[in-house]
Every structure is written in C-alpha cells, then in structure tokens.
Write a structure and sequence with these properties.
The chain is mainly β. The chain contains one helix and four strands.
C-alpha cells in the first residue's frame, strides 16, 4: 500500500482547527529586531521514524547566530532529555527571551 500511495480512510486528527472558546495570544516576537546573540533562544522537539518506533530529538539554538547550543536524542518522550539539553545550553550563557511552543 505504501509503494502505491494508498492509505486507509479514517478520521484524521483535527489539530489545526481553532475553537472560538480558546483565547488567541499575540505573537510577541513578530516585530522584534533580533540584532545580537543571546537575545532570543528557542527549542523544539521532533521525532525521527525508525524501523521499530521513533527517536526524539530536542535542540536549543540562538536565533541570531543560528548556533545550536545543545541537542539530545532519546528513545522515549520523557522530560529528562529536554532538561539535559537545556542545562547544557546554559553553559554558553542565558538568553533574554526563550521561545518554544
């Protein structure tokens, strides 16, 4: 089925459809001029499909230089590998703003 591009028909997650009951917060970094290192850092987690499950990758980076301060890989989605990455990044300094989703 995968080779032919076929997939089962079932209800898909509706994660991008907003609700009128949920408050929409403004994006505070929209017009911010990022002109120095350590002004804004960010972090994100992504998953990497493997033959028998997933690996999870977290990275902490500086927006100005795009330098990756730290990253961690885990085979479970627990909090400890994220904390480890953040603590390693703090060895380089501390940001004024830390952005994540």
């Amino acid at each position: 089925m995968r080779m032919m591009g076929l997939e089962a028909i079932y209800p898909k997650p509706r994660t991008s459809i907003g609700s009128t009951e949920h408050k929409i917060y403004p994006y505070l970094l929209r017009n911010l001029e990022i002109n120095a290192s350590d002004l804004v850092w960010s972090t994100d987690i992504t998953y990497i499909p493997m033959q028998n499950g997933y690996m999870y990758l977290v990275a902490v980076m500086d927006w100005y230089s795009r330098y990756v301060f730290s990253w961690q890989l885990s085979n479970t989605m627990d909090v400890q590998f994220c904390i480890d990455a953040l603590e390693m990044a703090f060895a380089y300094g501390k940001p004024q703003i830390f952005n994540t989703d």
